[in-house]
């Protein structure tokens, strides 16, 4: 899987129409021991990550996530960062900045999620 395919699969999981599809997509792009952390959350393994997304989608029906086309990788470390536009059904838009650690096969080992756009000089 390429880095771009991994990122697109992750965002597809955020938008998946049901839990089974979400788990299938997350299993494809995460390592077995993958984690996701952010404000007030620390999730371990696909089931916990999928459950958290399920709960978020249930509380915010109609939410759609879009990956920015400009993602960055590090030439020195297995990290990639980008931004995700979160469009809520009520018309509000939020921005998330995930910092993602990848394994040698470009599967997600860890996501640390921040709310807000990355700084302009975030290289």
Write the CATH fold name.
Nuclear Transport Factor 2, Chain: A
The protein's oligomeric status is single chain
**How many extended strands?**
8
Contiguous helical run count: 3
CATH architecture: Roll
- List the domain count as a whole number: 1
The major β-sheet equals: 8 strands, mixed
Mean pLDDT: 93
Query: Could you say which overall geometry the principal axes of the C-alpha atoms support?
Result: globular
Q: What fraction of residues sit in β-strands?
A: 35-45%
Radius of gyration: 14 Å
Into which percent range does the helicity of residues fall?
25-40%
Can you describe this structure?
By secondary structure, the chain is an alpha+beta fold. The protein has helices at 3-15, 19-29, 46-59, and strands spanning 30-38, 41-44, 64-67, 72-73, 79-81, 84-87, 93-102, 108-115. Helix 1 packs antiparallel against helix 2 and helix 2 (19-29) crosses helix 3. The longest helix is centred in the middle third of the chain and has 14 residues, at 46-59. The chain is globular and about 40 Å long. The model has no long low-confidence stretch (mean pLDDT 93).
Topology:
Blueprint: H1 3-15, H2 19-29, E1 30-38, E2 41-44, H3 46-59, E3 64-67, E4 72-73, E5 79-81, E6 84-87, E7 93-102, E8 108-115
Parallel strand pairs: 1-8
Antiparallel strand pairs: 1-2, 3-6, 4-5, 5-7, 6-7, 7-8
Keywords:
31% helix, Nuclear Transport Factor 2, Chain: A, alpha+beta, 3 helices, globular, 123 residues
Q: How would you summarize this macromolecular structure in one to three sentences?
A:
The chain is α+β, with helices and mostly antiparallel strands and 123 residues long. It is built from three helices and eight strands, in the order ααββαββββββ. Strands 1, 2, 3, 4, 5, 6, 7 and 8 form an eight-stranded mixed beta sheet that branches.
